Amino acid sequence: MGRGKKIVDIDLVIEEAIALIEEGGVEEFSTRRLASRLGISAMTLYNYYENRGAILKGTLNKGLGLMWKGLDAEVASWRGQGGSSVGAYRILADHLLAFAQTRPSLCRFVLTESAGNSRSAFGNQIEEICGLSPAEGELARDAYLFELLAFALALKVISGGETPEGFRELVGEGYERLLSRHEAA
Fold this sequence. Notes:
- The protein is an all-alpha fold.
- The protein folds into 2 domains: 50 residues, Homeodomain-like (Arc Repressor Mutant, subunit A, Orthogonal Bundle); 113 residues, no CATH class.
- Helices cover 70% and strands 0% of the residues.
- Helix 4 packs across helix 7.
- The chain starts with 10 loop residues before the first helix and ends in a 7-residue tail after the last helix.
């Protein structure tokens, strides 16, 4: 190990943490493995990050960015064709499914780790992407329930408990029951 070796780009730490999670899930993630991948000692990591949790927090933030990458353009295209802000939640669900299928371990990590975070921070990000002003009342509750449904179904697809077709069908039914009545609003 490169004792005393400095990390030139600390973003590389997060990129390698993501790679480790994608290879073996968060269960297989360790600072020792990460340091080995980077060619440094585990103690050198702690010069840049307070602990394993801080590395995982940075990894979660980057993972969220990767999960939503391109969604704003998809939603803008939808809106440019006359689609509603509420209807953009269907775009969000499709985007989430694609991410779950292409990066299942990272998606599982992001969805399960972010589940413990504040609803408002995560929800506001989605509302902003979908072009919905910070919603209150029934719309906020229904949008939140739809998000939970889509997230849970994405996890089911990753684990093999649901098919992508089943995901689309159930998300469509959830949209009809929860959000379609808000489209005119």
